[in-house]
Task: inverse folding
């Protein structure tokens, strides 16, 4: 299986999956309020309906208060990849 292409340095690809398209849009709006982002791309999320939004987040352009939270938080090396992720 081919590995997905990584985003450029300082950027992250975000995937939001929700049964309700409005819920996915709310999460995308929150991300837009915290980071510079691209316009979300919308896709169907399976046979049962739902929505999958994908957007690129520019982590070098962080808004407050997220900047304060990121500076004080620490990432954990115990994080595990989800079973449906590569």
Result:
């Amino acid at each position: 299986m081919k590995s997905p292409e990584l985003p450029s340095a300082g950027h992250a690809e975000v995937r939001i999956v929700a049964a309700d398209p409005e819920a996915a849009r709310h999460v995308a709006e929150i991300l837009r309020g915290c980071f510079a982002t691209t316009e979300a791309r919308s896709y169907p999320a399976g046979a049962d309906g739902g929505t999958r939004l994908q957007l690129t987040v520019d982590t070098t352009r962080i808004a407050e208060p997220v900047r304060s939270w990121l500076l004080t938080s620490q990432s954990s090396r115990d994080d595990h990849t989800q079973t449906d992720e590569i």
